[in-house]
Amino acid sequence: MLLQWAGEEPEREGLRDTPTRVVRAYRDWFSGYLSDPADYLRRTFEEVEGYDEMIVLRGIEFESHCEHHMAPIIGRVHIGYLPRDRVVGISKLARLVDVYAKRLQVQEKMTAEIANCLNSVLKPYGVGVVVEAAHECMTTRGVHKPGVTMVTSCLLGSFRTVPETREEFLSAINLKGGS
Ligand SMILES: [Zn+2]
């Protein structure tokens, strides 16, 4: 239907398998609906030999789609938390990002969802999530502003209430001073 609407002939050779391919691509792009993000965090590692400093995972790349245009959102997520007694394997954090990214998204919502999920499962002293991303609905159409990225953040617990903790996180991810 989309091919016809765009002015194409869906029967021509190059397009014959396109609907099947698109369905397969959508299955991949939106596979996040099939997983429970909290599952990835439930296998936590509690033995940390007294480690009680901030843990930061920087620059987790993600691809998502905006729920307004179904256009790609491409960017990076930075996650930090101050563990109370549980830490989680770093690949689990990357998986957590993927589960939320592979759904239709609004960047602000995705940022809060990642932070809230970490907060409720790991129950750390604090959590910080910063997302920087380019929205193709803005860079390739509409106002056409390539190179513009949007930055959103969600700081919970001590990341919100203790200025030193917030500073430590922001400088660890290199956002201090807004650069
Ligand atoms: Zn959009």
Characterization of the model:
It is a single chain. By secondary structure, the protein is an alpha+beta fold. It contains eight helices and seven strands, in the order H-H-H-E-E-E-E-H-E-H-E-H-E-H-H. A five-stranded mixed beta sheet has the order 5-2-3-6-7, sandwiched between helices. Strands 1-4 form a two-stranded antiparallel ribbon. A hairpin with a 5-residue loop joins strand 2 and strand 3. It is elongated, with a radius of gyration of 19 Å. Zinc ion (ZN) binds next to loops.
Radius of gyration: 19 Å
Question: Helix share of residues?
Answer: 25-40%
Largest sheet: 5 strands, mixed
- Beta strands, count: 7
| Poorly predicted sequence stretches spanning 5 or more consecutive residues | none
Mean residue pLDDT:
93
Topology:
Blueprint lengths: L1 H5 L11 H12 L7 H6 L1 E2 L9 E12 L5 E11 L4 E2 L1 H12 L2 E2 L1 H16 L3 E10 H4 L10 E8 H4 L1 H10 L7
Parallel strand pairs: 2-5
Antiparallel strand pairs: 1-4, 2-3, 3-6, 6-7
What is the gist of this entry?
This protein is α+β, with helices and mostly antiparallel strands and 179 residues long. It is built from eight helices and seven strands, in the order αααββββαβαβαβαα. The longest helix has 16 residues.
What are the defining features of this structure?
single chain; 179 residues; alpha+beta; 39% helix; elongated; binds zinc ion
